[in-house]
Structure formats: structure tokens, C-alpha cells
Amino acid sequence: MAVVAVIGGGISGLSAADRIARARPDVEVVLFEGADRLGGKLRRVQVAGAWVDVGAEAMLARRPEGVRAATEVGLGQELISPLSTSALVRSRAANHPLPARTLIGVPSDVAAARASGVLSASSLAAIETEPAGGPYPALTEDVSVGKLVEQRFGAEVVDRLVDPLLGGVYAGRARQLSLQAAIPALANRLMATGGSLLEAAAATVGPPVTGPVFASLAGGLARLPEQLAARAGFGIRVGTPVRELRRTATGFELALGSVPSGQRFDADAVVLAVPAGKAATMLNKLVPVAAAELSSIETASMVIVTLAFAGLAPGALPAGSGVLVPAVEGLEVKAMTFSSQKWPGVGAESGVLLLRASLGRAGEQSALQRTDAELVTLVRRELAEITGLRAEPVDSHVQRWGGALPQYAVGHLQRVARIKAAVHQLRGLAVCGASYDGVGIPACIGSAHNAADRVLSALQPSGQ
After folding, report:
1. Distance (Å, rounded) from C-alpha 164 to C-alpha 162?
2. What distance in Å separates the CA atoms of residue 452 and residue 179, rounded to the nearest whole number?
3. CA distance from start to end of the chain
4. What is the pLDDT of residues 16-34, one digit of tens each?
5. Which CATH code, of 3.30.300.30, 1.10.3110.10, 1.10.287.950, 1.10.3720.10, is assigned to 98-205?
6. What architecture does CATH give domain 44-84+299-406?
7. Residues with Cβ < 8 Å from 299, sequence gap 6 or more?
8. 458: helix, strand or coil
9. Strands (E) located in 311-359
């Protein structure tokens, strides 16, 4: 019987193992996870008796992999859509509506940008006159999102719109993130035809579409990896770190656990679904070219602080799903999500109002170095400043995510292509996860399925 090892128990590893096991019941699939739990950056806990996500809380509904995965594991009826998608942006110590029809912060509609009140008159004028400022030749290489937007619209648009939007997705900084990797549809258009950024953003956004943009699950999005593991047609070994990966005459050998008490596990094929740094360590001797490229992928750390409040009157928080806070505001919280106002049923059974605050941007470590109590105090102070809410929470939870978010630097797609080209020289070896093809849940599942299919193609057909 052929054996496949999947290293990493996040949504990527679970999705890869699930796909291989369902496609080839005659193959033994074993998933190894170094931590004592599965799910990776999908995790839920109870705060004041209510289940809440303390990692990723939403997935794109318009990209099919996430919704399809939830449906396939029996959670289709548990999918929920946001009650509100209207967010606020903090600007000059005041809250403003996020301009409609922005493309991850890049304006596509001058009137909408003007109506929000986020930008100054000079920035609005720069956006409005940008189409006439050309000619703008087609881009010939990748650039940072922030550099392009600043060249066309000015620094304020980067600082007050693009940076907070990208910071929410990547915990990164717009002037360092790749246009091709972060906003591929816009990059493709500008590389094909060039032209105005405003007009390209408008064409990329397109006409209004029906249906929800985001989805989650009642009881927490972390139920998805839980259910994938529960129905597993594959073996699962948690608390089992893989120290090294070696090539053998017939496949691969995994060195498990610590050196003194380590074990070995032989496999015909391997899917590596771990963060870039861990993958680099495991591939250092096996595929040194890929390991060197993986070592160049930087990461950002962040903290999620969840607070629960009881007995608040309606309107205690501003209307909408939350507030984005640009770094130029001088606050440490970069975003606040009003969970009970964003998702149906969150906190309802326990009679509490739940919100979560996100801290941490690329290059910052200060948030992780504070104690839980210090972080809760900090969030309460900035919550009062941003929303006016000064009530005492009845419960709280602090979740640290050290080095959790890969940073897609300029040239990221080219780096990923080089990594995969080197890895794929070894038949039966594949990589997947957030370090490669996108940080969102559907992107991770798609990456996992591609890796699984590559491994399946390397195995002997069933019955041979």
C-alpha cells in the first residue's frame, strides 16, 4: 500500500489529506502536526459562554473553495453572511464610512471617496485628475501597491485607505506588499494595457454584484477544520513535529520528534503544508534552492483581543461591522470588529456583546511582548477613544499569532514559481499553504488541492 505523509495540520494540510484520502481510499494518508491541536490559524474559544473565532473569522464567499468545503463536510446549512458590511475608517480622530467601491483601499469612484470624508481636498483632486495625467504605459514588472498608489494619488491615499485595508488582510504595509500578489486582477490589467489607475480600479471592481462577499459559520469558522478532522479518512498524529525530511530510494523519510527519542516514518509521497520558515528548515538539505527562497519570505505577528460586554443599550457601538485604524492615527489597535453586529447570533445565546481588536503590523513585535492584562487595558483605552464605549467587560481573551502572516513582498509570485519548480523536481513532493498562493481560506484550500493532485499523479494508479 502506498503511503502519503502530510506535514501540517492547518486548513491547508487538512484539505490536502482529505482530498488524497477521498480520491484514493487504497492509499494510507497520515497527517503530522507539531502542536497539540489542529486548525492552524483557525481557532475558536468560548468568551463569556459564547463561541468566537480568535483567528480567521471570515472567508471569501465568491471564491468557491471555502463554501464548497463547508458544504462537503455537512456544514452547508451552518454558513452565515454578515449582517453588515459597512465599515468605518478612523481619520484625524474621527470615524468616517469606508468609501464605497474601493479595491482593497484603492479608490475607483471619486464621488464615493469624497462622500466618505476620509481624504483631504488635495487628495481628492489628485484622484480626480489622475486619468488626464498620462500617458501611463503598461507596467513591465511587479511593484509595491503603496508605491504605485502614492505615485498616482499621493501619500495620503496610501496612509489612510490602502494601508489599513491591506493591514487587515496581511498585517503588512502597503509600500512593501506586491501588487501582483495582493491585487492580481488590477496588476494583470495594468500590465496588459497600462492606463489610469482610477479607471483600471473601476474596471476591476466592475458593476455591483448580488450576494454576500464574505461567509462564516454559526459557532465559528474554526468548525471547518474541526469537521474535516472529525470525518477524516486519514490518520492524524498531533504533538508530533517533523524535524527533518530526507530522500530515500523509494520515497521519503520523516524524522519525527526530538533527537534523543526521535522516530522515523517512511512515505512514498509528501505534502508540506507548513509556514515558509519551517518548510525552509525541512528542505534545507533536500531542496536547498527552494529552502533559500522560502527563508526570504518574511512574516508578521499579530494579537487578537476579544472582549465581551453585558447589559449594553442599543447603539453602544457605532453602526456597522467595525473600524479600521490607519497607523498614521498613532494608535496601536489597527482594527476593531464589532462581532455581534457583524455576524448573526454571535453572543445572542449568552446575552453578551462581543468585539475583537487586532494589533500588530509587519516589523512590530511590541504587542506580543505585553502581558494579557496590559493588552486588555490598552484595547479598552483605545476602544473608548475610538467608539466612546467605557463599560467594564465581563470576559476577555487574548490570542497571540507569532509570525503567522506571510508577507508578499514585490516579486512574490516569481519567488513562488522558483520554489515550486525546485520542489517539483522531486517526484512525489509538493508544497501548499498561505506562504504561496494567497492567505485567505479559499486560497489555502485551492493551494492544498493543487498539491494533493500533484502527489496523486505521482502515485501508481489504483490496482497497479
Report:
1. 6
2. 28
3. 10
4. 999 999 999 999 999 999 9
5. 1.10.3110.10
6. Alpha-Beta Complex (3.90)
7. 275, 276, 277, 403, 404, 405, 406, 407
8. helix
9. 322-324, 333-337, 352-359
How far apart CA 455 and CA 464 sit, in angstroms, is 16
What average pLDDT does this structure show over 54-61? 96
CB 279 within 8 A of CB 244: no
**Span(s) in the chain for CATH 3.90.660.20:** 44-84+299-406
CB 70 within 8 A of CB 441: no
Which residues contact residue 412 at a Cβ distance below 8 angstroms, ignoring those fewer than 6 apart? 142, 178, 180, 181, 297
Instruction: Give me 434's grid cell.
Output: 498561505
pLDDT band at 75 (very low <50, low <70, confident <90, very high): very high
Rounded CA separation 173/139 (Å): 21
Q: Where in the chain is the domain with CATH 1.10.3110.10?
A: 98-205
In the chain, CATH 3.50.50.60 covers 3-40+225-297+408-458
Q: What is the C-alpha to C-alpha distance for residues 263 and 78, in angstroms, rounded to an integer?
A: 41
Stretch (H or E) spanning 343: none
**Burial class of residue 394 in the structure, from the number of CB atoms within 10 Å of its CB (0-12 exposed, 13-18 middle, 19+ buried):** middle
For residue 184, say if its preceding peptide bond is cis, omega within 30 degrees of 0: no
- Strand order across the beta sheet in which 242-247 lies: 242-247, 252-256, 263-267
**Across the strands, what pairs with 32?**
7, 237
pLDDT digits (tens, 9 = 90+) for 144-193: 999 999 999 999 999 999 999 999 899 999 999 999 999 999 999 999 99
Q: What is the radius of gyration, based on Cα positions, of the chain?
A: 23
Give the whole-angstrom CA distance, residue 214 versus residue 382: 27
Check if the beta carbon of residue 166 is closer than 8 Å to that of residue 182. Answer: yes
pLDDT in the model for residue 374: 97
Region class of 83: left (phi > 0), else alpha (psi between -120 and 50), else beta: alpha
Q: Which amino acid is at 31?
A: L
Could you say which DSSP state residue 460 is in? P
Q: Note the residue count of the chain.
A: 464
| Nearest alpha-carbon partner for 187 in 119, 140, 236 | 140
For range 104-114, the mean pLDDT: 96
393 secondary structure, DSSP code? P
Residue type present at position 430: A
Q: Spelled out in words, what is the top-level CATH class assigned to the domain 3-40+225-297+408-458?
A: alpha beta
Cell numbers given for 287: 531542496
